Amino acid sequence: MANACFCVLLAAFAAVQYNDPDIYLWIPVYLIPAYLSGRAAFRPADLTTPALLTLLVVALVAAVAAVVWTWPASEGFWRRDIWWESEAVRESMGLMIVVAAMVVVAISVWGHRRRYLAR
Length: 119
Fold this sequence. Notes:
5 helices, mainly alpha, 76% helix
C-alpha cells in the first residue's frame, strides 16, 4: 500500500515540474522512484531481476547522496514559513521524500526475496 501511495505522490511531484527551469533534472528524479514504487506495489517479483535491482540500488544511493549534498542549511527548514519561501529547501525536502520512497521499495524487495528464497 505504501508503495502505491509513493507511486502516485511522486508521479504528481513529477507532473508539477512542467514549468520548472530545471525540468530535465527534476522529472527523472521523481519519475524513476515513482516507477520503482509502482513496480514494487503491483509486480514486486519484477524488481528481483538484475536490471531493475541495479536501477533500485543506483537510484537509492544517488538519492541518499543528493540529500546529503543538498541538506538545507536553514534552521527549522521544516517550518512552513521557511520552505514556502526557499526553493532550495523545497527541493531538498522533495529528495528526502524520494529517499523515503526508495527505502520502502528496498524493504519490499528484500521482504519479497526472503519469502521467495524461503520456499
